[in-house]
């Protein structure tokens, strides 16, 4: 199932669809395109290389100029539409442009989550040095972003897809990068359009590093679109 939320979003951000010369439709970029996913991964690798580079100044200047050419080439073929938001058969939202899970978004890890038989959201992940906050540790805001998303997925698979109203975090231990970790989340309960979930980022043995609880609210406009109400 694919739901079109673009109209509500566009009303809040009408300039975001892009109408400049040189733009292109979604089909040109190819939704779910393997080539686009590979490009996104190449850019992630590039970002990691930039963070870790020890190249001399003149080499950095030369590389920067080469990258500027590639950036201009892509910018000239800018897309005019968003990647669509779809729900897989388990009810997990899928969105190639998502900042956490988007395979086509270089900013995303990308996080790959699964729904377990008991409806827990579970994702194995590994942060990279690009996510560093305190020395040798992952930035707390990055952990929060991951937890926001998996909690949101937990309420979505329970039928309460919504936007975050509140997110409360307890940073129990420092989160390392470069090591395997596990993010999990479970739906807790609902009242009307409000749904609660809890989750955590933990070591593979279950030792919690960051714990989260969140309230998600199905926006009135989504509810009206889903029920066909005016
Ligand atoms: C598609 C699924 C994707 C799942 C994975 C993605 C997970 C990631 C999610 C995000 O990151 S979302 C981005 C961060 N969140 C936002 O940007 C939300 C911004 N806020 C809003 O858009 C609106 O305030 C909101 C949709 C949350 C509520 O607007 P509504 O007009 O639909 O609700 P309304 O104002 O009528 O309030 C309904 C109830 O919720 C309560 N409420 C509203 N906002 C609240 C809030 N922020 N915190 C706590 N309670 C809140 C409100 O008091 C009221 O309670 P009662 O029913 O008891 O009276």
Textual characterization of the structure:
It is a single chain. This protein is of the alpha+beta class and 230 residues long. The chain folds into 2 domains: 21-79, no CATH class; 112-227, Roll (Thiol Ester Dehydrase, Chain A). Helices cover 33% and strands 25% of the residues. It has a 6-stranded antiparallel beta sheet, covered by helices on one side. A hairpin with a 5-residue loop joins strand 6 and strand 7 (121-125). The radius of gyration is 19 Å and the shape is globular. The two termini are 22 Å apart. Bound molecules: decanoyl-CoA. Decanoyl-CoA (MFK) is lined by residues 85, 93, 148-149, 152-153, 156, 161, 163-166, 192-194, 215, 217, 219-220. Residues 138-193 form the Thioesterase domain. Pfam families: 4HBT.
Brief characterization of the structure:
With 230 residues, this protein is α+β, with helices and mostly antiparallel strands.
Key traits:
single chain; 230 residues; alpha+beta; Thiol Ester Dehydrase, Chain A; 2 domains; 6-stranded antiparallel sheet; 3-stranded antiparallel sheet; 6 helices; 33% helix; disordered N terminus; binds decanoyl-CoA
CATH class division of the largest domain: Alpha Beta
The total strand number stands at: 11
Q: From the helix content, strand content and strand pairing, which structural class follows?
A: alpha+beta
CATH architecture of the largest domain: Roll
Describe the largest sheet.
Answer: 6 strands, antiparallel
Radius of gyration: 19 Å
State the helicity in percent bands.
Answer: 25-40%
Question: What is the strand arrangement across the widest sheet?
Answer: 6-7-9-10-11-8
Shape: globular
Name the hetero compounds present: decanoyl-CoA
**What's the assembly state of these chains?**
single chain
Number of domains: 2
Number of helices: 6
Biased composition (Low complexity): 15-28
Protein name: Acyl-coenzyme A thioesterase THEM4
Region (Disordered): 1-28
Subcellular location: Cell projection, Ruffle membrane; Cytoplasm; Membrane
